[in-house]
């Protein structure tokens, strides 16, 4: 699995990969220094990177396994991942520690963004995403994937009650207080490789949102008043 960092543009957002195989597709991620949040932030980021704010697909996220293939710009209630094959549209999500997982078809204008926290990961949001792409006629091996900045194994602590949900290969160690750490990115990578995505097409960001306080918002670090990072993927 290739771990590469993303290019920083203007210190306010990242271009999530310098170039996808389908070089029409571009993906972005706002940093803590990005001046706007919420819907205004989404619109602002879209404008800066050359997408149209009125063409945003915006899931109303609930930490579910619900993913949708969407053909019109809209709010999508009760949803944690959106895909489209309409090149004029832009998929969006917001995160603070959860994994933003970007999907880009190697040659066609098909792309998506999924919000994956530990609960969604365990409950099967990646399996639902794979099933959705297959149902719409796409081969999983035809997608490039980037797991963006998120809380990493250095900082993602879980207690006894939740650790049973993870296979031992993804658990780092326990300290004397019964706290374990889990490598969510490795777990997501492993799941996707088993589903039929190509390992060589999956890239992981090394950036830990909890560690890098100046760079990212973190829900676990900053609590319920934490800001959010915005993710966008679209076609130009
Ligand atoms: Zn960390």
Summarize this structure briefly.
By secondary structure, this protein is an alpha/beta fold.
Strand content: 25-35%
What is Rg? 17 Å
Distance between the termini: 28 Å
Q: Provide the list of bound ligands, each named once.
A: zinc ion
What's the total number of strands?
Answer: 17
Counting copies of identical and different chains, the oligomeric state is: single chain
Helix content: 10-25%
Shape verdict:
globular
* Class inferred from helices and paired strands: alpha/beta
Give the helix tally.
6
Question: What's the architecture in CATH terms?
Answer: 4-Layer Sandwich
Q: Give the integer mean of the pLDDT values.
A: 93
Instruction: Tell me the major beta sheet.
Output: 7 strands, mixed
Description:
The structure is a single chain. This protein is α/β, with parallel strands linked by helices. Helices cover 21% and strands 31% of the residues. It has a single domain, classed as CNF1/YfiH-like putative cysteine hydrolases (4-Layer Sandwich). The strands form three sheets. The chain has a seven-stranded mixed sheet. A seven-stranded mixed sheet has the order 2-3-4-17-9-5-7, covered by helices on one side. Strands 13-15-14 form a three-stranded antiparallel sheet. Mean pLDDT is 93; it is low at 1-7. It has helices at 38-49, 118-123, 125-135, 160-163, 184-195, 219-222; strands spanning 2-3, 7-9, 13-15, 25-30, 56-59, 67-69, 74-76, 81-84, 90-95, 99-105, 111-116, 143-147, 157-159, 171-174, 179-182, 202-204, 229-235. The chain is built from six helices and 17 strands. The protein starts with a strand and ends with a strand. The protein is globular and about 55 Å long. The protein binds zinc ion. Zinc ion binds next to loops.
